[in-house]
Amino acid sequence: MAPDTADDMRALREKVSELENELHRQRTERVAGEEIFRALADAAPVMIWVAGPDAMCTYFNQAWLEFRGRTMEEETGNGWIAGVHPDDRDLCLATYLKSFQARQRFRMEYRLQRGDGEYRWVEDTGVPRYEDGVFCGFMGSAADVSGRKSIAFSPDQEAVRIVFSLTERERQVLVLIAEGKSTKEAAARLGISYKTADSHRSRILEKLGVHETASMVRYAIRAGLIAP
To answer: Are residues 23 and 65 in the same domain?
Structure first.
């Protein structure tokens, strides 16, 4: 029995050693991968951000920090929110947090304060991140699009209030239709039946108090869901 026990213990120690070596290799590869990602992100001309599954931002690239004129420590967590224009903040946060809850990509435009104090329109796009099938947060990029925005434009707060009284699915249908998609195309994009999409469209019209697609589009524009 003793030799067998000794052999078993030796095999167990070897297995533990193999597991420790594998964990070390994975950690080393993960750190190296993160360093490569950050080097590439810092060289990118667009602003890039990363957030964890709790929606708190963990990283901003050099382009973002230079635009904002702030440090990584000031922007991470929810520090970046301080730079969003007060009139855009509620809509921006609602879109951001609802996308995290639904784990669905988003695209939105809002005004972000530059380091010199001027507010600039940025288009921000975020996509969910997964590692081995586990949701681990979002990654996104933002670009200054002030040149294509009307200087006088700002989201209409009443339109924002009404649009965000819609359900998340109704708002998704509204955005797709406002972007020119047919009800059939919206249904296909969202993976729902035409009947369900058409039902959502009818409820949207009812809740907005309008009767045609053109008015739906105007609401989406006034609420800042799509560019004018």
So the answer is: no
The distance in angstroms from the start CA to the end CA of the chain is 82
pLDDT the model gives residue 193? 93
Domain match, 133 and 177 both: no
Identity of the amino acid at 135? F
Same domain, 28 and 110: no
Parent domain of 13 = 1-41
Closest CA to 220 of 153, 90, 228, 169: 228
For residue 227, give the nearest of 143, 115, 130 by alpha carbon: 143
Dihedral sign for Cα 117, 119, 123, 125, please: positive
83 within 8 A of 113, measured Cβ to Cβ: yes
CA 143, CA 69: separation in Å to the nearest integer?
16
The whole-model pTM stands at 0.54
Mean pLDDT across the chain = 82
